[in-house]
Amino acid sequence: MDIIPTYNYFILAALLLGALYSLYLGLRKYLRRVEQGRPWFGEKLTLDGARARFNAATFIKRGLMTSRLKQRPVAGSFHGIMFIGALLLIFGHAVFMLDFVGIDVYQGWFGYLFLQLGREVGGILLFTGVAFFLIRRLNPPDRLTAGGKTRSGFERGEAFLLVIVIAGFITEGFRLAFEVSPGNGEFLGSAIGAVLSRTFGEEGSMLGMQIMWWVHGLMGCAFIAMIAHSPFSHMLLGPTNSAFAHKLPGINLPPINFDFDEDDDGEEEMSFGAAKLADLTQKNLLDASACLWCGRCHEVCPAAQTGKDLSPKRVMAVCAEFMEEDKFDDDSLIDVLGQEAMFACTTCAACVEVCPVSNNPAEVIVEFRRHFVMDRSEMPETMAAANRNLESRGHPFVGTASNPEDWRKGLDVPFFQPGITEYLLWIGCSVAYEERAQEIARAMVKILEAAGVSYGIFEEAGCTGDPAKMMGNEMQFVEIAETNIEEFKDKQIQKVITMCAHCYNSFDRYYPELGADWQTIPHSVFIEDLQAQGKLVMAAKSDEKITFHDPCYLARHNNIVDAPRNVIASVGELIEMPRSKKESFCCGAGGGNYWGGQGGTARVSDVRMQEAFDTGADKIATSCSFCNLMLTSSSSKHTEERKVFDVAELVAEKITIIDS
């Protein structure tokens, strides 16, 4: 018996097309908004522009497989349950359409697995996942309300989705009240149908089936129609944003064109960074559109977690609110976000690493910093002093008592000779001007000498310009970088060893944009290579417990986590902190906060040092001169004994010199 006349399916199909059109209009709204940013895909979002930026790996891993959601086992599991349930239901309903062209898909093993059991299990999984998140939103974790921003609409949407699933099972129950399921894979529907059959009888069940078929179908169409006009837009925008994630991890700051064009009045246009939405890139605006307001970035942000004014979640949420109100040219945005918050960022990229939809709040923050610094000449005084010192003296260390050659007193350190020396040992500003960091260079010289490496240094130590860049002074960074690149080319530099994670990141990521073409190697990686080649003769490893602090600019920005651990394991017993590798907690120095970082309830480095002490380790190791300085300062609050060491220092202590 044909309970639902065929023409009803055609009517429902027409309504579904209307719902899909509503979905299209909503997505087009986001497209038009994103296009108002500075070109990243192109002036307009075209297929060619999208293809050039497409990142298949992140689309599959993060967008489809939701890999970052699985970092939180409970939430990740229930997201997975929902996703699998939705796929089973969508596939089952889509395949059923084949019945209209004469293919009886409801019979046999295929019908049992996909249209009966598959849809049944899918409905249960979807209901379970949605119910979990709805219940949790009634008593939300702190991160969902962090930054003073809570995204409304999820609760109503989730409740509506639950009603749709329930309506689907009731519809199925009414059908099975008078129709025998061929394979009985619809076990829940059969149980519901038995109850409905006894309650309504055959005729009542048929009428109920007709009513609920329309109720369920209309609600399904309504949900599809509302997706792009509600927070559920993240189901499509999230995977889309992951599809266009940067191919490099961490922060990827676009270069600024300092070749000024003149406008019609003959005056130079000299606005840098971002004060309003239109100053951000199209990718930045796509980030804000895709943002879930889930607060995971807030949970891992060292500034937010030490009581400072910054919340990366709030930054993205405020940008999204301005977009929703079409305030693309409203330059009050930068003041709503606030100078204090923007300069509290340590550029550690923890927010970037944890975001389930591949947002990059840190890039947005630095864009606002650029405007504060280069347009308004505004920044915290301690950072401003470091910037002035960098401009006048070539390094940012104000009031230092050290001279750049102090670290090599008593050592016979060779200078780099073009065409003869193989490696440049880049000293950098922190090693040259901070007494504690100077010991890292001395240890590295001992290692290079013991291994017979052809190396040399520059007679005068320099800075890569990283502090200027990350504090927002891109113009100063470019000037420093271009000077360094010219010197490197003059001296035919091909291979560089760095002892600072920030130096490595600048040389490897940003200098090539300005014409650099040498190989840069972090010293921990270089030491590991020397050990692997058998070039270092070392005493037997001790039973000392050593915990390792991952520099953000190596682990998160550059995926370097194994090399320093292998080096440490060669000298002692490595034990991990709770937050380690790419989930490490920052030392607090990045983004110029070595010269800032004030305010809040605690210093970032104090929090990290406490984590290190809590492991019970005998020593705390790191592989960045700035991390060493920050953690050494915090360690002194606990003990007068030296606890913090660079990996080079640990190895240098173990080197056995064999007389030839």
TrEMBL record:
Annotated 4Fe-4S ferredoxin-type domain residues: 282-313
GO molecular function: 4 iron, 4 sulfur cluster binding; metal ion binding; oxidoreductase activity
Assigned GO CC terms: plasma membrane
Entries under InterPro entries matching the protein: 4Fe4S_Fe-S-bd (IPR017896), 4Fe4S_Fe_S_CS (IPR017900), Cys_rich_dom (IPR004017), HdrC_iron-sulfur_subunit (IPR051460), Helical_ferredxn (IPR009051), NarG-like_sf (IPR036197)
Keywords: 4Fe-4S, Iron, Iron-sulfur, Membrane, Metal-binding, Oxidoreductase, Transmembrane, Transmembrane helix
Transmembrane segments: 6-27, 78-101, 121-138, 159-178
PANTHER family given in the database record: IRON-SULFUR-BINDING OXIDOREDUCTASE FADF-RELATED, IRON-SULFUR-BINDING OXIDOREDUCTASE FADF-RELATED-RELATED
Name the UniProt record assigns to this protein: (Fe-S)-binding protein
Organism (species): Pseudohalioglobus lutimaris
